[in-house]
Amino acid sequence: TVWAYGDGGGSNSAGMCKKLIFSDFSPTNNAEVAPHSDFSFFASESISPKTIKVTIKGQSVPVTVVQKQNGYKVSGKLPNAVKGTYAKINIDAKGIAQCEISTGWLVKVTQ
User: Fold this and answer.
1) How far apart are CA 72 and CA 94, in angstroms?
2) I want to staple 97 with a disulfide (CB 3.0 to 4.6 A). Which of 3, 15, 16, 72 is the partner?
């Protein structure tokens, strides 16, 4: 058997996992923000939008996911209870090949 591309012609889940990308974090990492501020990020098209979960200080945060040309724009608000502290915006999701990705970024929330 001869394969024209790749390593066997089957689905390459490792390759699909590499395509799971979050980017364009807003506000930027370590930015100082007001309580209940908006945040957003971009998720690549290889991510299953229904699996995107955001938590801050252990609290699940509702997000809005809007399909864009080459992925998804995800937006939400910091919880009201997060004030006067650093908070990591944690993101968990799965890709279309069931690969998992976890990432996040830190913001400083003022009083």
Assistant:
1) 13
2) 16
Burial class of 69 by CB neighbour count within 10 A (0 to 12, 13 to 18, 19+):
exposed
Parallel/antiparallel/unpaired status of strands 59-61 and 53-56 = antiparallel
Q: Are 106 and 33 in contact (CB under 8 A)?
A: no
**Per-residue pLDDT, 69:** 87
Which residues, given as ranges, of the chain have pLDDT below 70?
1-16
pLDDT digits (tens, 9 = 90+) for 16-46: 677 889 999 999 999 999 999 999 999 999 9
The whole-number pLDDT of residue 14 equals 56
Residue 65 CA to residue 61 CA, distance in Å, equals 13
Q: Where are the beta strands (DSSP E) in 1-99?
A: 22-26, 31-33, 38-44, 53-56, 59-61, 63-68, 71-77, 85-94
